[in-house]
Design brief:
The relative contact order is 0.30. It contains 3 helices and 2 strands. It has a domain at 10-41. It has a two-stranded parallel ribbon. The radius of gyration is 14 Å and the shape is flat. The N and C termini lie far apart (42 Å). By secondary structure, the protein is of the alpha+beta class. The chain has helices at residues 18-25, 28-32, 43-46; strands at residues 10-14, 36-40.
Length: 48
C-alpha cells in the first residue's frame, strides 16, 4: 500500500502592475487548491 503525500505549492509572481498582483493574490481558484501565492513588484522585492 502506498500513501500519497500532498505537496505544498508556492507561487511567486513578479509584475509591476499592482492591479494584476492584487487580482492574482486574491484569486479564489488558486487558494481553493491550497496553493500559496506571493507577489512582488520587482526583482529586489522578490528576493526578500
Amino acid at each position: 500500500m502506498t500513501s500519497k503525500a500532498k505537496k505544498a505549492v508556492s507561487i511567486l509572481v513578479v509584475d509591476k502592475d499592482s492591479r494584476f498582483l492584487e487580482s492574482i493574490s486574491n484569486a479564489s481558484s488558486i487558494r481553493e487548491v491550497g496553493w500559496e501565492v506571493r507577489v512582488a513588484r520587482d526583482a529586489d522585492e522578490a528576493m526578500v
